[in-house]
Amino acid sequence: MIGIIQKVLIDLLHDTGGEELVANVLSEAGVPADVTYRIDQNYSDDEFNRLLSASAVITGLSVGELSALYAKAFLDRAKVLFPRFFEMSSSSEEFLMRQATIHAVMASGLKTQDERKAVTDKFSAERIRPGFVRVTYRSANKLKDLYIALAHEVAAIYDEKIQVQCDETGENEYCFELKWQAPFGLKPSDHLADAS
Questions:
Q1: What InterPro entries does this protein map onto (predicted)?
Q2: pTM of the model
C-alpha cells in the first residue's frame, strides 16, 4: 500500500488529537512509535488495517465515521499534490472514471514492478451509461467503506450527489455501482429547465 495512505491517516490523527492520540493509536496497532511513512514507498497492507482498527478503538468512532473523515483529509491532500487530476475532470463521474488511472500514477514511484502491479490491479471502472458507472475493487484489504466515503466526497467536490451500491462478487472482490442523480455533465437544475 502506497505510503500516502498511512501518512494521511497519521496526519489526520495528529491534527485531531496531537502526539498523544498518534502515540496511542500506534501502540494499539503494534506499530513502532518512530514510524515515518513516505508517499513514494510501499508498506504492508495489514499495517494500514491495524492502524484503522486501532484508530476506531482509541477514538470510539466507527470505521464508517473514520472513513468519512479520512476521505475528506485524503482528497484535501490530493488536491495539493495532484491538482491536475481535479482540473482535468469537469464532474465527479469523469474523475471516478479516471480513478484507476490516478491510482496507477500514484503507484508509478514504487520501486518494483510487482509492487506497482499490486496497486494498479486493484481497480477498474466501466461506464454503463451516462450517470451510471460500475467499479470493480479487488483487494484483501476489504476497504469498501473507505471507497464509498471517497466516492461521496469526490461527488461533493463537484457539488454533486451519488448513490453507491456495493456487492461482494468474489473472494476479496467488490462491485460498486455508482449512480448520479443527474446524467454526466448536467446539474439537477438543467433537468428542471428541460422540463419547463
A1: H-NOX_domain_sf, Heme_NO-bd, NO_sig/Golgi_transp_ligand-bd
A2: 0.80
